[in-house]
Design goal:
single chain; alpha/beta; Endonuclease, Chain A; six-stranded mixed β-sheet; 43% helix
């Protein structure tokens, strides 16, 4: 295995672990915008454990996922989606309209306080969460707008409440 491939794998593993820690600390609302719900980030054991813990907290929690391209989910499946199908929770999986894909990278919004772009590295090679009220408010509004006009993913239509 090349150093580049090993570095990429290590980076994705660390990003998934950071995301899992943040998800475990979320209070009630998690929104994920992703190109294809990359299983190397969103379907790892730490991430699945954190999602399970979050979703079992009670009826007040909500996990919404906007998947820009659900073709990979339909073809290969995803362990996070499998978990969502088994748990009695308020979740939704939707696909934004093709002309509304202006999020440039995966973005995870946790409550109204923090966001992370797990696939974007900083100069040190990390995916660090960001606490910026102005940017967070803008991202929440953009996600809400996209969610409102997005179509429920055909494969996961039974999720939508």
């Amino acid at each position: 295995m090349t150093d580049t491939a090993s570095d990429e794998r290590d980076y994705l593993e660390k990003a998934s672990e950071r995301l899992a820690v943040l998800l475990a600390s979320a209070r009630a609302d998690v929104r994920i915008y992703t190109r294809d719900l990359d299983p190397r980030v969103y379907a790892t054991e730490p991430m699945l454990a954190a999602a399970r813990q979050f979703l079992l907290r009670g009826p007040q929690v909500r996990l919404d996922i906007l998947v820009q391209d659900d073709g990979r989910l339909r073809a290969d499946g995803n362990r996070l989606i499998d978990l969502l199908q088994r748990l009695p929770s308020r979740t939704g999986v939707r696909v934004p309209l093709p002309e509304q894909t202006d999020f440039v990278e995966d973005t995870v919004l946790l409550d109204d306080r923090i966001y992370i772009r797990p696939l974007i590295r900083d100069r040190a090679g990390n995916a660090e969460p960001v606490e910026s009220r102005a940017e967070m408010a803008r991202l929440i509004q953009r996600f809400t707008d996209l969610w409102e006009f997005a179509e429920p993913s055909v494969e996961f239509r039974h999720f939508v409440l």
